[in-house]
Write a structure and sequence with these properties.
The structure is a single chain. By secondary structure, the protein is α/β, with parallel strands linked by helices. Helices cover 31% and strands 19% of the residues. Helix 5 crosses helix 6. It is elongated and about 70 Å long.
Length: 348
């Protein structure tokens, strides 16, 4: 039976106010609803029966209509560099990939927000999968909730499968639960949400969330970026940057731009100078990313010396630039390689 066929609804992904309302509708107190939130997001129970400070009667009533909604990974692959890629089932019966990246005293989880993606970027395997559906808030949070290494996490990045602004309601609900005192109580500075730059939705995200923002840039020239990223037609990077200029990134909230470097495509000093012009005056950083080759593209990564020269030029001219370490390439977990087309559905 798939989760969608289950008569019970998942509690995971519900806010404290929604849990209080559920309790009220079932003849329980508001305090009981807050207890349920505590069991979910602070104690991470796997069954309603574990909520031992609820009466047996209330637990039985709750279990008739609801389930926790936790779904363990159905597969995992481990890289030689310590990266772990998990395959998680979703409520719709499909699957998504998440990537756990340990790095010294830091541990980052790269979460997905969609099955596939509509953006169809030339360099991304997820885009080649096509769009198969939005994840629910429960699906997104399950990648954290069911993660075996959950208690070691220091950071979460919404940089897995899908465009976060294209599933904004569920991404915002997820970050609310991750940061609320009654939820995971994380600082929003531990969470980064990426986007190709869907302007109106990005504006709403910036207004309603305090999480860090990462913009997928990859080329500062309109026509060239459009060849790499079809979204540029409707959402020019110049307009996205002008929107970002209206927000304050001079304090704790960080703005970064992701830039995959392709040999002979976007790695020239002409591109570097245009980046400086485009981003002039913005308090931001640029993360240079190595390209990981995917089938059916003529794109190639550039060599290390070129990457370093590009980085040094940008940093010396006022934009702090780093080269992101490549992780999990041997298990197809690195940037742009996530794809679950081979696992289109899973029965539970």
């Amino acid at each position: 039976m798939t989760m969608t066929e289950s008569p019970q609804k998942p509690l995971l992904g519900m806010t404290q106010n929604e849990l209080v309302e559920i309790a009220h509708n079932m003849g329980m107190t508001a305090f009981t609803g807050r207890q349920i939130a505590d069991w979910l997001y602070h104690r991470h129970v796997s069954s309603i029966d574990e909520m031992t400070n609820l009466s047996k009667v209330n637990r039985a009533k709750l279990a008739e209509l609801y389930t926790i909604g936790v779904m363990p990974a159905v597969d995992c692959q481990r890289s030689k560099d310590g990266t772990v890629k998990y395959l998680f089932p979703t409520l719709s019966g499909k699957t998504v990939e998440s990537v756990y990246i340990p790095d010294g005293d830091r541990a980052t989880l790269c979460v997905s927000c969609q099955v596939g993606c509509k953006m169809n970027c030339l360099f991304c395997q997820t885009g080649k999968q096509g769009f198969e559906g939005n994840l629910t808030t429960a699906d997104i949070l399950n990648q954290v909730y069911a993660l075996p290494e959950r208690d070691t996490l220091t950071n979460i990045v919404f940089m897995g499968q899908g465009e976060p602004m294209d599933n904004l309601d569920n991404v915002l609900r997820s970050t609310e639960i991750l940061t609320a005192p009654w939820g995971y109580a994380w600082s929003p500075r531990r969470i980064t949400v990426s986007s190709v730059g869907i302007k109106n939705k990005l504006r709403r995200f910036l207004d309603e969330s305090e999480c860090h923002v990462a913009i997928s840039l990859h080329n500062p020239f309109h026509e060239q970026r459009q060849q790499l990223m079809p979204a540029e037609r409707a959402m020019p990077i110049s307009e996205v940057v002008e929107l970002l200029r209206k927000y304050d990134f001079t304090h704790q909230r960080r703005l970064s731009f992701e830039y995959i470097v392709f040999r002979g495509v976007n790695d020239s000093m002409t591109h570097a100078r245009e980046l400086l012009r485009l981003l002039h005056g913005l308090d931001c950083r640029i993360n240079l990313i190595r390209f990981h080759h995917i089938p059916d593209t003529d794109l190639h990564g550039c060599d290390e010396d070129r990457m370093q020269s590009f980085r040094d030029y940008l940093t010396s001219h006022g934009i702090f630039t780093t080269i992101r370490a490549s992780r999990g390439e041997d298990i197809f977990a690195a940037c742009g390689l996530l794809n679950t087309a081979r696992n289109r559905s899973i029965q539970r």
